[in-house]
Specification:
With 654 residues, the protein is α+β, with helices and mostly antiparallel strands. A hairpin with a 2-residue loop joins strand 21 and strand 22 (584-588). Helix 4 (35-54) packs antiparallel against helix 6 and helix 4 (35-54) runs parallel beside helix 7 (187-200).
């Protein structure tokens, strides 16, 4: 064995200077370099403007997607300082734009609270941009600096005069095409975040416009979180007026709005300094604790809940509840680098105390509302008890017949969840092909018969009576409801595989609704995927190609046309729709069952060649809104959604 210590010396140690570390490992700073990371760049720049607003110095923010796919973010805050830093001997503007962990966020006299990426936000955006230009208005002057891939082109310079009372920062950047392979911004994705920020900061006006097509939106909500809850519950029937709590406890500003509706789902969204804490944290725990205790006390005190009768649990008190919790914490302690769970213990106490006091006052002043809420909770408890009995019965039956797994499940031989995946497949025919084509070592197949129950409109006990849902629950093995534990899932990947038609899309939506409402931790942990079967098979002579959309089909046809002579027309039996033009056969697949096992493996199931889309929750509030719109009772919002988004749907045979 060679003496490796002689080969490993100081020359092997790479020192990344300036922003090189960001450019070398961008995913460490923005999550990924796909569509999600691309849009995150805009959010980081906007966060700086929001911090100015939180400090009381800005109330207008303008976000513009320019025709060249660059983005401009402009605010009327104080403007980034441009004077020379006493220690660094450079303009403060250049330091903020080029040095990690540099900014006013670390000085609590400048910003009492802030979001962003611990002060690395705008410098990271600069590092990952082909170019970035920043203009600062302050002291009656306009200052400018330009950067190429994070490096200043020239020192900060004065380029114009401005009105003395005009201040602000204008940042324009073009994401680096060498880093972001997908560099087209989606207006709706950015607009959703701007809307969310406007709800959370009721004194701010945020405008977003798209110079590519003229689309624009302006968001300003005087009602703040009250309007946010109304927006989230737009397609549900509220049981009462919104409960609104605002104040400060232990130097922590707290704002909460919530109401009960006619659904069976809990929808509570929590924020810290405008950051969506997907995994909750101490502020959410404080709210839930106070809600359960206060409502329980109110029910007993007013004779709405009798001793010895059914006991209400926290889940009962939150069924059909939509709420938004927003706290501003000076020194937030987040668990994990993704900032999705708050860890400050003092915040729990502050929220719990305030909610307990304010909710008790509200119930005393609104006895009719209090009665409606408790009646709703009692119905939830009855359904929970019925669901418990159904689960117990299922457990007893399984113990007697030894059938812990559904009979139609073709399981894999490996038992380590990290190396196992299950395909939930639409239809017995496709399920049969998948069973024959799979790799039996690590791939399990669960075929579904027909469409599963729409869980958006069903109580838990009814959900547990549905055979297809029972099969899914049993196969995954992580339980449901109060028993659910994502760590017990028998598979590391759960892949939904449905036909590329309207029925297939409907079944996929029903499945996603089920996982979002009842196994959301599987989505949070990145275990839910959507298979991408091909739409077309293209054959010329002995060459075969698969296309996953119309554009890819056209690219293949163009490539084939440019390659040599065209042969005679061909035909193929195994195709649902065929067109043949000068030797090129195009087969349009309508269903998975029309592919033989070898084709299904090659195109959709082979980890080396397949494409699968990972399902994630970029915005939980937006996801909740979409699921309720598509799967809820209200017809008109669903019709409007379909009309607005029909242009994005690929051509399908209906």
């Amino acid at each position: 064995m060679a003496n490796s210590s002689n080969e490993y010396s100081a020359k092997n140690i790479n020192v990344l200077k300036g922003l090189e570390a960001v450019q070398k490992r961008p995913a460490m700073y923005i999550g990924d370099v796909g569509t999600r990371g691309l849009h995150h760049l805009v959010n980081e720049v906007v966060d700086n403007s929001i911090d100015e607003a939180l400090a009381g110095y800005a109330n207008n923010i303008l976000v513009t997607i320019n025709k060249d796919e660059s983005v401009t973010v402009e605010d009327n805050g104080r403007g980034i300082p441009v004077d020379i830093h006493p220690d660094e001997k450079k303009s403060a503007l250049e330091i903020v734009m080029t040095v990690l962990h540099a900014g006013g966020k670390f000085d609590k006299n400048t910003y009492k609270v802030s979001g962003g990426l611990h002060g690395v936000g705008v410098s990271v955006v600069n590092a990952l941009s082909e170019w970035l230009k920043v203009e600062v208005k302050r002291d009656g002057k306009v200052y400018f600096q330009e950067y190429h891939r994070g490096v200043p082109v020239k020192p900060v310079k004065e380029i114009d005069k401005s009105k003395k009372n005009e201040t602000g920062t204008k940042t324009t950047f073009l994401p680096d095409k060498e880093i972001f392979k997908q560099n087209k911004f989606k207006f709706d994705t950015l607009a959703e975040r701007m809307r969310e920020l406007a709800y959370l900061n009721k004194n701010i006006t945020i405008k977003i416009k798209d110079e590519r097509n003229g689309e624009e939106e302006t968001y300003h909500f005087k009602g703040g979180l009250i309007e946010f809850v109304k927006y989230l519950d737009e397609t549900r029937e509220p049981l009462h007026k919104t409960v609104y709590i605002e104040g400060e406890k232990d130097n922590t500003p707290i704002e909460i709005a919530f109401q009960y509706n006619n659904s069976y789902n809990e929808n509570i969204f929590s924020y810290v300094n405008n950051i969506n804490t997907h995994e909750g944290g101490t502020h959410l725990v404080g709210f839930k604790t106070a809600l359960t205790r206060t409502l329980n006390n109110y029910a007993y005190k007013n004779g709405l809940l009798k001793e010895g009768k059914i006991n209400l649990t926290g889940d009962d008190f939150r069924e059909g509840l939509t709420g938004v919790i927003s706290v501003k914490v000076a020194e937030p302690q987040f668990e994990g680098q993704t900032k999705t769970k708050l860890g400050n213990s003092e915040t729990k106490s502050a929220v719990e105390t305030m909610v307990g006091e304010k909710l008790a006052e509200f119930l005393e002043e609104n006895p009719g509302v209090g009665k409606k809420i408790i009646e709703k909770c009692l119905r939830a408890a009855e359904a929970r008890e019925a669901a418990r009995k159904a689960r117990d019965l299922a457990r007893r039956k399984n113990a007697l017949d030894g059938m812990n797994l559904p009979g139609k499940l073709a399981d894999c031989s490996i038992t380590d969840p990290e190396h196992c995946e299950i395909y939930i497949v639409e239809g017995d025919s496709a399920g049969g092909s998948a069973k024959q084509g799979r790799d039996r070592r690590f791939q399990a197949i669960l075929p579904l018969k027909g469409k599963i129950l729409n869980v958006e409109k069903a109580k838990l006990n009814k959900i547990l009576e549905n055979n297809e849902i029972k099969a899914i629950i049993s196969a995954i093995g992580a339980g449901l409801g109060a028993d659910f534990d994502a760590a017990k899932a028998r598979y590391g990947k759960i892949i939904l595989m449905t036909d590329a038609d309207v029925d297939g899309s409907h079944i996929r939506t029903l499945l996603l609704t089920f996982f979002y409402r009842h196994m959301q931790d599987l989505i949070n942990e990145g275990k839910i995927y959507i298979a991408q079967p091909p739409l077309y098979k293209i054959k010329k002579s002995k060459q075969e190609f698969y296309a996953f959309d119309d554009n890819e089909r056209d690219e293949i046809l163009k490539r084939l046309k440019s390659n040599g002579k065209e042969s005679e027309e061909e035909t193929e039996e195994n195709a649902s729709e065929e067109t043949s033009t000068k030797g090129v056969l195009i087969s349009r697949y309508k269903g998975l069952g029309e592919m033989n096992p070898e084709q299904l493996w090659e195109t959709t199931m082979n980890p080396e060649t397949r494409t699968v889309l990972q399902v994630n929750l970029e915005s939980a509030a937006a996801a909740d809104k979409i699921f309720e719109t598509l799967m809820g009772d209200a017809v008109e919002p669903r019709r409007e959604f379909i009309e607005k988004n029909a242009k994005y749907v690929r051509n399908l045979d209906i």
